[in-house]
Every structure is written in C-alpha cells, then in structure tokens.
Amino acid sequence: MIRVLVADDHAAIRAGLVLILNGADDVEVVGEAADGGAAVRMARELRPDVVLMDIRMPGTDGIEATRRLAGVCHVLVLTTFDLDEYVHGALRAGAAGFLLKSVEAAALVDAVRQVAAGDGVLAPSVTRRLIAEFAAAPPKSRPAALDALTEREVEVLRCLGEGLSNHQIGRKLHIGETTVKTHVSRVLTKLDLRSRVQAAILAQDAGLL
Description:
Blueprint: E1 2-7, H1 11-22, E2 27-33, H2 36-46, E3 50-53, H3 62-68, E4 74-79, H4 84-93, E5 97-100, H5 105-116, E6 121-122, H6 124-136, H7 151-161, H8 166-173, H9 177-190, H10 196-205
C-alpha cells in the first residue's frame, strides 16, 4: 500500500484529491496538511511514501517544504501554476515530480505510483520546456564528482538523463530493477543530489547524452 500525505491550503481541493487517491486499491491517504509547515511536521511523523505538495500555501511554501523533506520521503508537486520559477525551484529543492492540477485523475494516481517506485514524473508541458532549455544551452563543464562514479553508475546516470524509468534502465542495461534502484541510490549519494530529476539535469549539463 502506497501511503500519501496531501498538502494543499484549499480544503475542497484536498477533499477531491483524497477522494481520487483513496479510490485506488493500492493507495492510502494517511494525512492532510493545509500549509507547508504542517506538511513537514506530519511527513516526519507519519513517514508517507509520497507527499502530494501544492506550491502556493500560507507560511512555509511548497518549495521550502520540499527542501526540508529531502531524505524523508518523495515529493510530487501538484500546482495550478505552470511557471518556470516554480518548476525550477521545485526540482532544485528535490521534488521527484511536477504536475498541474488539470491532470486527469487516473494520470495523477499513476504518477503517485511512479514516484513511490522511485521514478520521476513531469507534466508534458514542463518536459517540453526543459528539453528546449537544454537544447539551447551549451554543455557545462564535467563535474569533478562524476569521477567518483563507477562505469556502471555513469551508464545509469546517462539513462536518468534520457528520462528512463527503473524498468526501462533495467531492460537497457540487462540488470534487475532492484539492482537499478541500488545504482540510482548510489549515484544520488555520490553526487549529493536529492532526486533522480536532479540527476537527469546534471547528466544533461555535463554533456553525457
């Protein structure tokens, strides 16, 4: 069972999200928070698999809350606002995914499953913009931290940069998903990254693709 905490300052929206998520056989909403500070406190107490996080909330916003939850649980940002500053802020803070509230119910549940499994999820419009930004920007210098990676870990990082899921990485490299998860975890640790999305960005910046 995937345990989810819903954080949104609008009670009606929280109620709708809870209804959608609890309608899935493998998802259970374990708590609701009306602001980022409460989300952080509840996540540390309840240890959900995924926090569904709004961005614009009173007090501590969703981006700062996501930053504080690094290493505690996966964060899937769900917001009305498709703004680059929010996208970049959320991903730099360590969010595993970024979706818009216009997403279909089935797609939202599937995204929660993917994030809980360790994969990253981005709204199609966000993905297109990020790809365009990467295409327009020249590769940055190779980070020295990459030298700490094994050849296999570099291969896994390259796959992350291509946006592949754990299952797809396993098929491409002919290794099991459990092994893939181990390699991804080691890559994130060695590169001091908070999410596979950040790893994908680094792979693009370093010109590994």
